[in-house]
Amino acid sequence: MTLSYTNESPNEAIYQGTLTDSTDYDGTTIPLRESGAVFIKGYKLTHDSAVDSEVVINEFDAETATEFTFDVEKDGWYQFMYIFVETYDAGTAYAEGDVVHYDGLVYQALDATIGNLPTDTDYWELVEEPTELETSYSLVYDIIIYPFAKKLFGDLAEEYAISADGTFKDVEQFTAYKEMGAIVTALQAANIRQRWAGAERISRYAASLA
Fold this sequence. Notes:
The protein has helices at 147-153, 157-161, 171-209, and strands spanning 3-11, 14-21, 36-45, 51-55, 67-72, 76-86, 99-102, 105-109, 124-126, 138-145.
């Protein structure tokens, strides 16, 4: 399974990120995409791996989607759990622990079974959180996202947002870079005001010579 992240784009006061499933569903090593459904869940993490908030994935069709969008409200470390689950087939023999997609939900076999619907609780149990399963078609995808740093610092954003070991900088460093960004913005504004004042003086002087 392969996920990739597309650079975020402005979405009013925040940004929108896009995850793309670029898995090669060849029908041999991995089932065809149309033969199942995907489930995804994401979290914004703190620098020490604690959950800061859950990421809201915009609505998508679990049986066809290969792109998933979400709002990026803060810079930082994001983690996504992703899984592809094949749709139930009445003619397939399932072993204990196998999982299937059926009528929008995911079920796990309690025992070897064939021909018994996933709603039959003698053979199946409902999986409340499919993304927590570990199968051959699941993955955990981590990425550092920092559009606000990019807006402030451009090509220097990585230096302010990411530590040498590739992790998102700690709270103190993150706060420092935000404060530095505010200072830079203030200096830019002061420079603009200074230029306008100079232009006005030149304009008045030119008018006095007329």
